């Protein structure tokens, strides 16, 4: 099957064998039910062994799976009456960012997300999910609108990073990202951010300053890609697997470090295995977050957000070094 990962090959082969035996049984009078049952039990054990012991690099590969659900996949399942808005009112529209208004269980919300393509043609149109400055300015325009009409903001993060090309730099890529960071810190409505795939560098962070930050179990969130880190640290991008293990970019690591709030579980093998089930898991996380944040005043919301980011980076070894117990 196209898109299968290296770690999934034994599982794929076993599934194929089970399928062949079932088809043979249906087309003949030979009863192979006992053999099929044994293989299905073996498959269950194999899936548990592999998926319960994923390494950081395995999670990177799952986050990059070509069939992994995108922002629009979740928007269509989680929200009703979605109305997409276009343009930044300065330069143009960037299709690497989708943004609009919708209803979540009847509650008006603003939804913003990175959007990559499902095939080569769409990837080119959406610039492989790497936004230009106008994408971030469109996002900020919708955030300020949400603040005006007191709508909660929901951000889906899924990008390798902001587009690093000459045109993007000429139009103020760094300023656009910095402006989003500055403005999001003071937005007076709840902001819930969910990393659904790759969360790369400032391109991800420009939609990531929220009150609650959730990550899908097999997503990643980092300042640089493992390949980029390996090229800088060891002058060899082929050591990306080693870099992934040392960078602490997976959901369990970032939860332990206090960078994110909650891990949203995925179906065995990744979100692409069952998008509807994954949407249900995200919905539950959103309901809990929005209910919690709705009870806060504007002042409490901003103060809590400030304290959240102030505390990130206070590690035990630093406290020991300066003599704090």
TrEMBL record:
Q: Hey, which family's this protein in? A: Belongs to the AccA family.
Gene symbol of the encoding locus: accA
Record keywords: ATP-binding, Coiled coil, Cytoplasm, Fatty acid biosynthesis, Fatty acid metabolism, Lipid biosynthesis, Lipid metabolism, Nucleotide-binding, Transferase
Q: What is its main location?
A: cytoplasm
Where does the record say this protein resides?
Cytoplasm
Q: Which organism is it from?
A: Mesobacillus foraminis
Q: How does it assemble?
A: Acetyl-CoA carboxylase is a heterohexamer composed of biotin carboxyl carrier protein (AccB), biotin carboxylase (AccC) and two subunits each of ACCase subunit alpha (AccA) and ACCase subunit beta (AccD).
A Gene Ontology MF term for this entry? carboxyl- or carbamoyltransferase activity
Any GO BP annotation: malonyl-CoA biosynthetic process
Q: What is the lineage of its organism?
A: Bacteria, Bacillati, Bacillota, Bacilli, Bacillales
Keyword Nucleotide-binding on entry: yes
Q: Which domain of life is it from?
A: Bacteria
Database matches in InterPro entries = Acetyl_CoA_COase_a_su, ClpP/crotonase-like_dom_sf, COA_CT_C
Pathway it acts in? Lipid metabolism; malonyl-CoA biosynthesis; malonyl-CoA from acetyl-CoA: step 1/1
Q: What is this protein called?
A: Acetyl-coenzyme A carboxylase carboxyl transferase subunit alpha
Q: Which GO terms describe its cellular component?
A: acetyl-CoA carboxylase complex
Report the coiled-coil segments: 22-49
Residues in CoA carboxyltransferase C-terminal domain copies: 38-292
